[in-house]
Amino acid sequence: MSKVLVISTSLRPKSNSEILTKRLIAGAEDAGHEVELIRLKGKDIHFCIGCLACQKTQVCVQKDDAVEIAEKVKNADTLVFSTPIYYYEMSGQMKTLLDRLNPLFPSDYQFRNIYMLSVAAEADDEVPEKAINGLQGWIDCFEKAEFCGSLFCGGINDPGEADGKKEALEKAYQFGSSLR
Fold it and tell me: What is the mean pLDDT of the chain?
């Protein structure tokens, strides 16, 4: 089975995306995957400064938590990004991390399969489209990787509300069990 790295990008206490991420992880582990969870909450991640030194060295000049996260991303088979939807887009901290993964572009990265779990107060099916497109733009820069699927759980707003959403919890579990 695969070595799966799940990156939870929510910073909110009682995060709904984090609650659903835990169910996704349970499904992935029950399917036999080795899963590691990284939470961006509490991490020190600076903005990319665009110096492009990493394109030669494959290491960022900044010394923060993004450097260690990039190494874990590089060595995973499967990546799952979990994000709340803010203004019809991925969280800002997720975008900042994607930018800081620039040192991986010229590297011999291992990841191939990339997924996204997203959660929003609004329930319309098109709500996560811009977030998916944003992640797809990052994936397009890695020719050996592909976007393999997304799970959107809408209509969930208040902190901790996802704990009571049995259908969403089951969908997250099933999504996790279907990872490649």
Answer: 97
What are the pLDDT digits (tens) for 7-29?
Answer: 999 999 999 999 999 999 999 99
Residue 18: partners with Cβ closer than 8 Å, 6 or more residues away:
8, 10, 12, 39, 82
3-state secondary structure string, the chain? CCEEEEEECCCCCCCHHHHHHHHHHHHHHHCCCEEEEEECCCCCCCCCCCCCCHHHHCCCCCCCHHHHHHHHHHCCCEEEEEEECECCECCHHHHHHHHHCHHHCCCCCCCCEEEEEEEECCCCCCCCHHHHHHHHHHHCCCCCCEEEEEEEEECCCCCCHHHHCHHHHHHHHHHHHCCC
Reported as a single tens digit per residue, the pLDDT across 100-136 is 999 999 999 999 999 999 999 999 999 999 999 999 9
Domains and CATH numbers, the chain: 3-177 (3.40.50.360)
